[in-house]
Design brief:
By secondary structure, the protein is α+β, with helices and mostly antiparallel strands. The chain is built from 4 helices and 6 strands, in the order H-E-H-H-E-E-E-E-H-E.
Length: 128
């Protein structure tokens, strides 16, 4: 799938690649730990060869328990990585957008392993 995606990316002269990853059944200790989330971002950026621009911002908020949890934002030189970590449902909603090609499947698998998720869903968009 990755080779086909990269071929389409080049053929369509894409502006960038966007992936939306929903992780289900995550480790509550990992998704409620700001330092773990920051560590994830650093390791992810190294894995997909993206240069971080500034520090990773991680903020815990939400008055409604259904959506409360950490939100994360990391600028990268080729765009942005963001995510929301929902405590009550043990889910992570991760978005990666970059003008530089990367493997969305590798990102999803890495995130699944890091946050000890039971499963994930992945959607990928070629941005033009």
């Amino acid at each position: 799938m990755e080779e086909e995606l990269e071929r389409r990316y080049k053929k369509e002269k894409a502006w960038g690649l966007s992936s939306m990853i929903d992780l289900h059944g995550c480790s509550i200790s990992k998704i409620t730990d700001a330092n773990a989330i920051k560590r994830f971002v650093v390791e992810l950026c190294k894995m997909i060869d993206m240069k971080r621009f500034g520090e990773c911002h991680v903020v815990n908020f939400g008055e409604d328990e259904a959506v409360a949890g950490y939100s994360m934002m990391q600028l990268i030189e080729t765009s942005l990585i963001s995510g929301h970590f929902a405590d009550s449902t043990k889910r992570v909603f991760l978005d990666v957008f970059s003008c530089k090609f990367y493997s969305p499947e590798k990102v999803a698998e890495f995130a699944k392993e890091f946050f000890e998720a039971e499963s994930y869903s992945l959607k990928v968009w070629i941005r033009k």
